[in-house]
Design brief:
Length: about 100
């Protein structure tokens, strides 16, 4: 299979984001748990590369604040159907730069 033939189906990400958006707008703060379980490890490694003090507690502090920020539903509800991790990773980077640098 050539590179041009590979197509990623993001419909699963889209359905998940819309479900979480709806639940967050209904004030269900537990809705984000599925995203947390899916992306926490990847985001932990990402922040670990950016943060000066690489202690586990410091990385977790950044991520906990990021997850709390996502509870406002704005980022999730603005998702447009591409790879969900590629939507959230730049938001995490911006969040880190705005709040921890």
């Amino acid at each position: 299979m050539g590179i041009m033939q590979i197509k990623k189906d993001f419909s699963k990400d889209f359905r998940l984001a819309k479900k979480i958006c709806k639940e967050l707008l209904a004030k269900n703060k537990n809705a984000i748990i599925e995203l947390y379980n899916r992306y926490q490890q990847m985001f932990f490694l990402f922040i670990g590369r950016l943060i000066h003090n690489k202690k586990k507690e410091n990385i977790e502090d950044v991520l906990n604040k990021f997850w709390l920020e996502l509870l406002n539903a704005k980022a999730i509800c603005s998702y447009e159907g591409r790879c969900l991790s590629s939507k959230l990773s730049p938001k995490l980077n911006l969040f880190f730069c705005s709040n921890f640098l």
